[in-house]
Write a structure and sequence with these properties.
Blueprint (H helix, E strand, L loop, with lengths): L15 E3 L9 E4 L3 H5 L7 E6 L15 H18 E11 L1 E4 L2 E4 H9 L5 E10 L14 E9 L54 E3 L19 H11 L5 E4 L6 H7 L4 E5 L3 H16 L25 H9 L2
Parallel strand pairs: 1-2, 2-11, 3-4, 3-10, 7-9, 10-11
Antiparallel strand pairs: 4-8, 5-6, 7-8
Length: about 325
């Protein structure tokens, strides 16, 4: 079952290197360069997990907006390199949202699925929905409140540490009602498998709808990055899909959430980003994590729910007056 805090014995004597070329003598390797340039220096079958949230081509400050097909062509070149450097049995986790053009929504996971499946030994294991409650409010369509993680494996013999990501049983007291185990508890004491069958938003991330707050203004991890990845989202992938001392790579590192999630669980990590301002913040966050002072939301922390007594949770008096005055 997912621990509520980081493992207390994670390594702190890490060899942190900065280099725009791959080198083998590292615990953390940070590259401030174009991701394709760096990936081409990585040997074949070297990486155990590639996990990232790439630019969505929506005109953020760190990206130049391209025509959709040009953007997808560029992304496919990156994914082909990631495929080459993944070990047999390694995993690729590509977290994407929507591309918007003239008010029309283009769900990127559909495009990426068709693209990734061109690499024949990539097999989709799950399409995980990351649901969050807060974000921009749309005026001409329903507000978007989820993004998608496509989890592919390179082949069939892959790492999947189910016990580390089990979730609490809904009815732990259930018992077998027949057979040789009649009367004995029927549930796994470590928790249940996060099923890949779900009803929309019914049971949070227990049904592969992961209700993890996105990194907005009041989130403890917030930096200047406009599209920041929550550490605990990556932690679940790192725990499930790698083992200690495996190598995790993020080709669009941003401010280093993937790197932090990896080192907290004794994985080696590589992060690449072309923006020096984000690389500097990532290195600062890595050092803060190692020294135990990084502000973050701990894995398994319950989501805040208002009690109704908070002023912001109460209906404004102006609304009540307006409603009361209507005939």
């Amino acid at each position: 079952m997912i621990p509520l805090t980081i493992f207390p014995d994670f390594r702190k004597d890490l060899n942190i290197l900065t280099s725009n070329l791959f080198t083998d003598n590292f615990d953390v390797l940070i590259a401030n360069t174009d991701t394709l340039d760096f990936l081409k220096t990585v040997p074949d079958r070297k990486i155990n997990l590639v996990v990232t949230s790439p630019p969505y081509n929506i005109g953020k400050v760190y990206e130049k907006k391209l025509k959709l097909q040009d953007y997808l062509n560029w992304q496919f070149e990156v994914i082909k390199e990631c495929h080459r450097i993944l070990v047999d049995g390694g995993s690729l986790c590509w977290e994407v949202g929507n591309y918007i053009e003239s008010g029309e929504v283009f769900p990127l996971d559909i495009y990426f699925y068709n693209m990734i499946k061109q690499l024949s030994d990539f097999k989709l294991r799950n399409r995980i929905i990351w649901y969050f409650e807060h974000g921009l409010h749309s005026k001409k369509r329903l507000s978007g409140r989820y993004e998608t993680i496509l989890w592919f494996t390179k082949g069939d013999n892959y790492t999947f540490n189910l016990d580390l990501i089990r979730v609490p049983q809904k009815y732990p007291g259930k018992r077998n009602y027949k057979g040789e185990n009649k009367g004995a508890p029927s549930c796994n004491p470590l928790g249940k498998n996060p099923s890949d069958v779900w009803k929309v938003l019914e049971e949070d991330w227990n049904k592969l709808i992961w209700d993890i707050p996105n990194v907005k203004a009041n989130h403890p991890e917030k930096t200047i990055h406009p599209a920041q990845f929550p550490i605990e989202l990556v932690e679940r992938l790192v725990l499930a899909l790698t083992n200690e001392n495996d190598i995790v790579l993020d080709p669009f590192m941003g401010v280093g959430s993937t790197i932090v999630a990896s080192i907290l669980h004794n994985r080696r990590a590589i992060g690449i980003d072309k923006e020096k301002i984000y690389v500097d913040i990532a290195i600062e966050r890595i050092n803060s994590a190692i020294s135990g002072v990084l502000k973050r939301r701990y894995l398994g922390t319950p989501k805040y729910e208002p009690s109704g007594r908070e002023k912001v949770a109460q209906v404004p008096l102006e609304w009540l007056n307006d409603i009361g005055g209507q005939k």
